[in-house]
Amino acid sequence: MNAHAPIPQADAGCGVAIRQERGQRAVFCGLTGIVWLHRKIQDAFFLVVGSRTCAHLIQSAAGVMIFAEPRFATAIIDERDLAGLADMNEELDRVTRRLIERRPDIRLLFLVGSCPSEVIKLDLPRAAQRLSQSFAPDVRVLSYSGSGIETTFTQGEDACLAALVPDLPRADAHESPSLLVVGALADVVEDQFARLFAGMGLDLVAFLPARRAGAMPSVGPNTRILLAQPFLADTARALEARGATRLAAPFPLGAEGTTAWLRAAADAFGVDPRMFAEVTAPGLRRAEQALAPYRTMLAGRRVFFFPDSQLELPLARFLARELDAELIEVGTPYLHRGHMAPELGLLPAGTTVVEGQSLDAQMDRCRAARPDLTVCGLGLANPLEAEGLATKWSIELLFTPIQGYDQAGDLAELFARPLVRRTRLEV
Ligand code: SF4
């Protein structure tokens, strides 16, 4: 589609206009997810089978967080491999063997595909199977693609978690119903949610991914899944194929989002509404107190979202409903209408949601609108800042714990910070 061609529009049925755009995109590839996933699964290792560009991307994205031996690396595909002069499978086996010998702490190894491995059609699922057999039972080897041809930014996590699903232990139909929270959360956030669920009397609660490879949760027909992240379409599909049922809920961002998310689980497990109110009241109060000063800063501020992380809809809902910001345009790379239905229902009537991207057209609209704050990828932030627009890097929203009551204030602060900095510079 031409960048300036008319855009198909649809109404989501809740007064939100959804438009679709196709054209040039500016987003990171799915390798980026390794930066937060390697910290989450503590005995896993991510071996990217890629080029020097892939190695640089991971190093620079995660650079500040490397302190000792990182749990990711890149097996570089060089010119000899690309020219078909070397047997890539033999080389991959050799690199993997050396890695496992040197790092006996690794229990789960992900071979992560990239653009180069896809271009030379390296069969990573088969390589993972072969290596898994040779390292069993000590190390499990799985594969997924983080290539920029197949995935954007947060889809890397979706591909990784979906790769875990076939290996999850099977829960029988006669087992008691259990709750599975799906999506990588910072440990501190996970612990807070676990305490809240325990306070409501829910004791069969597990998280995917688990912190250790040997502690991955079981899944079966009595598993109720609650998505903690909005970009897990493939993972949810794989879990549903194993018989699990997804609970519809907004995402746990902000005081309102967190309450609605917790309530979806509480309702599914028949928690008494009074008990729910009692357990959530202290957190809700803390969140509302933390948000109040930021509402003064963000009320009436006009915000423009470029499509990047798939977190855009819940973030926009939070900004509009809890901080009184005004939404100019909410871009999202993909819109899963099923998973996003509760979020769409909460967006203010008249909100413009744009699915997909046509970069030039979107840049034109952003420049014309002159937003107070633009949420975008790193690549767009510098040019927009140079034009005098305040920006927020969407990647920061993935690296920072933002879910739950006790992080609501931090989340608001992330949006307020560029505005405060700008005011200081002007002074
Ligand atoms: Fe670039 Fe592709 Fe490697 Fe990502 S996977 S860093 S897009 S070459």
UniProtKB/TrEMBL annotation:
Protein name: Light-independent protochlorophyllide reductase subunit N
Family note: Belongs to the BchN/ChlN family.
GO biological process assignments: light-independent bacteriochlorophyll biosynthetic process; photosynthesis, dark reaction
Gene that produces this protein: bchN
InterPro entries registered for this protein in UniProt: LIPOR_BchN/ChlN, Nase/OxRdtase_comp1, Protochl_reductN
Role, per record: Component of the dark-operative protochlorophyllide reductase (DPOR) that uses Mg-ATP and reduced ferredoxin to reduce ring D of protochlorophyllide (Pchlide) to form chlorophyllide a (Chlide). This reaction is light-independent. The NB-protein (BchN-BchB) is the catalytic component of the complex.
GO molecular function per UniProt: 4 iron, 4 sulfur cluster binding; ATP binding; metal ion binding; oxidoreductase activity, acting on iron-sulfur proteins as donors; oxidoreductase activity, acting on the CH-CH group of donors, iron-sulfur protein as acceptor
Pathway this chain belongs to: Porphyrin-containing compound metabolism; bacteriochlorophyll biosynthesis (light-independent)
Listed EC numbers: 1.3.7.7
Keywords in alphabetical order: 4Fe-4S, ATP-binding, Bacteriochlorophyll biosynthesis, Chlorophyll biosynthesis, Iron, Iron-sulfur, Metal-binding, Nucleotide-binding, Oxidoreductase, Photosynthesis
Native source organism of the sequence: Methylobacterium gossipiicola
Cofactor field: [4Fe-4S] cluster
